């Protein structure tokens, strides 16, 4: 089994993601691929990491979404591969039209870096196979443009299709929202559940030895999915 | 009192580095567009009341000087239209 | 004579230059000399003094003179660290001033071959109710976040203080910490006749022309008119530069490398040649330009950001350029090394200048005034009984209140090296998961320095040492940034002497090397001079950073212990200022007590016995206890023996509050190391403070403390 991390100019969480994925999927091959000439034909799992691809100039993720590497991502999706977009990676997937919605600046008008709690809203995806419905996870966020916008219609449609994966909440699952995202949405799935975009950083919480390990629930999830008879 | 619409075009001053412009230009060229340079600025649109057009423009210049424009890095142009 | 004056040189300096050259200089040469012989580049007033600082230590792998100091942290790992100022640009354009300050110090660490791993920022502003100070503070914080977050280096520490003397002269001191393996340490000494100079990074424009000279002149009232001199940083490009540089150093190899900072290409080339005792021929028309119409002099002195200069063997140039191309950054051959130590600048084949390297590099030093200045009279301070409202009032002061509104706008985690985030005392970094690491902090107390600059400098070192000890790390080295007024006035000259003497005293007493640093003089504006501000960046060693104090939360029921000596004083304290008790100097730090604490921390597995360790500093014991309660979420139920101001709000130099995992072990270790240890009480589930005092009980609920501490900024 193989995982590939796509690296754009300005991605800055790619090495972190590689280290965390190696820890989460110890028997898998893990590669980092520069966007220019990226070949995803042999991968089962592609991750678009956090950072400031192309400086996030113009709009967050806008310039990276026009890279030929995104065509390779689309082909992987057509083959049924897994794609995880983390933070800037989520923004790139949205700009590329692979996931719905749009991003704006945080409602608090500044960059926010702190731990948040997330309620697992859907478990039908390979990425959430290790979690229980309604479970609360603790992960860090670090972003300036994390305000995820949906129209009311889009939100209802996603909710109805069980495509809202994660929502911001308080430590006991109560309502909370660090950046103004519509409905407190922190993570969204593609129709077949095999693409997940999420704003919090699971790779920064893959470290049991320092008490931050809920990210492993997401990064190791492909193993649970396979164990449950799921296909990759 | 007459109402005016002012458009303030804000650009980086000549010689100041434009990281956004450079990154966008690179991406456009990578997509095959023959652009030589790109500058990224901003557009502000204000509506305000003033006794005369000249006073409206004067007011917008003062707003630019006090808040809207960073004179260390930016230049601007004002266009005023009576509504 | 006119060119020399415009370049900022004194008549005596100009005369010396002509004597060494054997002729008059050309306008281009005066311009280069003006920058190279500026205070900012040449340290004319401070160089001799700085030689007196201790620099030897068994962990020192690179010391003063290197782009950044490097310390051995074990298992083949090393830590590069340095602090630098960017004060004057931040007063004019705070966002870009702070951003380019971070970019510059990051490149210094990169030039040692280290991957930049963390920033810390020591910031000083005028009072928050002054609109201009508030504007500068907002801009600087925005600039730190803008650059750090995008370049992908976390900001994990620093401090902020407010004082009227900084009102027109904010201070922005940026520290960068990086990690590397021993075999990767780079040199900055150009060498090898026929080797080439490769300019790596961004194209060159008009940024900051004359910036170094700009930093050496006091800011006049029309500083906002100094527009062309402000540099703009591009953190996205900075990130590409980090990756390209490290890849080239690792897989291609360079003879030497230095970043382009003050003095631009001229500064970097001259310094690299001077270190290698060689010369160079630089073709200015080979420099990739952002604007076509730059004059040769402008090309030479431009301070455009995100550029590095490499001395590289000709056979390796193609590989280096291929690597640079992959990242989309420039890599142009702009010169070659000559054995003869002469700097030759050419443009389109024409030689514009030829002068000895040493002429530029060895600026005549300036004698420092030695006029004794009057010590201000000290008051005899009262020691009143405290009042209930004192604690919430102190917690709400701008110098003590919650800093999380600032540091949560910074990415603190990118890179996976941050083990303990900012909050209390010092951050903890690991070189990599499972590798050794460090505790890092910056410290300096303006109140102490305003009263006695030398003593304040000693306390800055002591406080920084205490803060790394709080993480279970023994201090192993420090970097310093001296921010001072003009040395041409008697008070400024004395302040410079005093702070250097103070740092030297403290460093020797604690057996710590000074691995390098920065001096920023002429920090005065409109006739008001800043309080002497010697900022100390301290590195503490952690063999197992993942087990540092602060990784695992303390438990309810933990014993609360008071450890250490260093009798508290009200002189210079926050309480004395708040209560109007008068002005008196603080006591000298108790170095013996700090050494005993460092010996314990260096020897035992402190984190097994202690869950939380916090030093008593600004605001004294009650403020420290409140900070422990708020940070841990636990309540503290304690009995204290005295209720006077000195006991509760006096500021000691070697005292710590501990929440123990194993109180018996703590008492045993303390006894072995002759450290006084007194049990004050227990940690409870019910957050807040309950203090049983001789006269009665003082009680503060958690909500009350937090509300006071989180005052709107």
Q: Count helical runs of chain A.
A: 7
Gross geometry of chain C = globular
- By DSSP (H or I, 4+ residues per run), the number of helices of chain C equals 26
Number of strands of chain A: 11
Strand proportion of chain C: 25-35%
Strand order of the largest sheet of chain C: 8-10-7-11-9-12-13
Helix content of chain A: 10-25%
Gyration radius of chain A, to the nearest Å?
16 Å
Structural features, described:
The complex is a heterotrimer of chains A (232), B (83) and C (713). Chain A has 232 residues and is α/β, with parallel strands linked by helices. Helix content of chain A is 24%, strand content 25%. Chain A has helices at residues 14-24, 62-65, 68-78, 88-95, 152-160, 215-219, 221-227; strands at residues 2-7, 29-34, 45-48, 82-86, 102-104, 112-120, 136-143, 147-149, 164-169, 185-189, 195-198. Chain A has a nine-stranded mixed β-sheet with strand order 2-1-3-4-11-10-9-6-7, with helices on both faces. Chain A has a two-stranded antiparallel ribbon with strand order 5-8. The mean pLDDT of chain A is 95. Chain B is an alpha+beta fold. Chain B has one domain: Phosphoribosylformylglycinamidine synthase subunit PurS (Mth169, Chain: A, 2-Layer Sandwich). The N and C termini of chain B lie close together (11 Å). The model of chain B has no long low-confidence stretch (mean pLDDT 92). With 713 residues, chain C is α+β, with helices and mostly antiparallel strands. Among the domains of chain C are: 1-37, no CATH class; 552-713, PurM-like C-terminal domain (Phosphoribosyl-aminoimidazole Synthetase, Chain A, domain 2, Alpha-Beta Complex), CATH 3.90.650.10. The two termini of chain C are 51 Å apart. Chain A binds chain C through residues 9-10, 12-13, 15-16, 19-20, 23, 34, 36, 50-52, 54-57, 110-114, 140, 142, 144, 201, 203-204, 207, 209-211, and chain C through 142, 145, 149-152, 234-237, 239-240, 326-328, 407-416, 419, 433, 546, 551-553.
